[in-house]
Design a protein that fits this description.
- This protein has an eight-stranded parallel barrel with strand order 1-2-3-4-5-6-7-8, surrounded by seven helices.
- It starts with 6 loop residues before the first strand and ends in a 15-residue tail after the last helix.
- It has one domain: TIM Barrel (Alpha-Beta Barrel), CATH 3.20.20.
- By secondary structure, it is of the alpha/beta class.
- It has nine helices and eight strands.
- Helix 1 runs parallel beside helix 2, helix 1 crosses helix 9 and helix 2 packs across helix 3.
C-alpha cells in the first residue's frame, strides 16, 4: 500500500536535543529501531540548518532509514533528503512534490481535521499526520486530535496515518492499537534517559505481523 515503513518516526527536534548532539541522538534511535527520521529546527539560521540536515541525511542514508525535513522543500532538496513534511502554513503538498519530484516522500499535518487529510491524500501525500494525540511538551498549544480519528482516517483514505504529540513508550501501545501506522515522537525518545531503549520500546510494537494495527482493514 505504501513506500513507507511502519513504526517509530523520530522527530529530530533541535529544541529538544542540542543541535551538536542531534546526530548522536538519531543514531541511538535508529539503533533502537526508528523507521523514519525528520529534522525539525525552527530557530537556526539557514546555513546551520543546511549543514545539520546534510549530516543527518548522510547518517540516515548509511543506515537505510528514510530522512525527511520539516517545512522546507528547498532545504530538503539541498540536503539530499528523501522528502519533506509540510503543515498548514508551509508550501502545499503539490508544491512540495513539484520541488522534489515524484520519488520524494511528502507528508502533511492534518491536525484534527479529516477533510484536510482527504485533501492532502488527493494531492498526493504519502502519509497524513494527526495530533496532538496527547498533551505535547514541544507544542503545548497544539490542537488535540482524538485517537478514534486515526482508525477512521486509515479506513477512509488508503494512505498511512501518522500520530504525533505527547507519545511516549508508556502510551505508544494505545496509539498503535488505535490504528496509527507511524508514531511521530520527539521528547518521548530524545529526552529519555536512554534514547535507544525508548526507541526500542516503541519500535517493537510494529516488529511482528501481529503488531497493533496489522491486519485491520485499510
Amino acid at each position: 500500500m505504501s513506500r513507507l515503513p511502519r513504526g517509530l518516526y523520530l522527530i529530530a527536534d533541535a529544541s529538544v536535543t542540542a543541535r551538536a548532539r542531534l546526530a548522536e541522538a538519531v543514531e541511538a534511535a535508529i539503533a533502537g529501531g526508528a523507521a523514519l527520521v525528520q529534522y525539525r529546527d525552527k530557530a537556526a539560521d539557514a546555513r546551520t540548518r543546511l549543514a545539520t540536515a546534510r549530516a543527518l541525511a548522510a547518517l540516515c542514508r548509511a543506515r537505510g532509514v528514510p530522512f525527511l525535513v520539516n517545512d522546507d522543500p528547498a532545504l530538503a532538496r539541498e540536503a539530499g533528503a528523501d522528502g519533506v513534511h509540510v503543515g498548514r502554513d508551509d508550501p502545499t503538498v503539490a508544491a512540495a512534490r513539484a520541488a522534489l519530484g515524484a520519488g520524494a516522500l511528502v507528508g502533511a499535518s492534518c491536525y484534527n481535521a479529516l477533510p484536510l487529510a482527504r485533501a492532502a491524500a488527493a494531492a498526493g501525500a504519502d502519509y497524513v499526520a494527526f495530533g496532538s494525540v496527547f498533551p505535547s511538551p514541544t507544542k503545548p498549544g497544539a490542537v488535540r486530535a482524538p485517537l478514534a480519528l486515526l482508525g477512521e482516517a486509515r479506513a477512509a483514505l488508503g494512505v498511512p496515518v501518522c500520530a504525533i504529540g505527547g507519545i511516549t513508550p508508556a502510551n505508544a501501545g494505545e496509539v498503535a492499537a488505535a490504528g496509527a501506522d507511524l508514531l511521530a515522537v520527539a521528547s518521548g525518545v530524545l529526552a529519555a534517559p536512554d534514547p535507544e531503549a525508548a526507541a526500542r520500546a516503541i519500535a517493537r510494537l510494529y516488529a511482528a505481523p501481529a503488531a497493533a494495527g496489522e491486519g485491520r482493514e485499510a
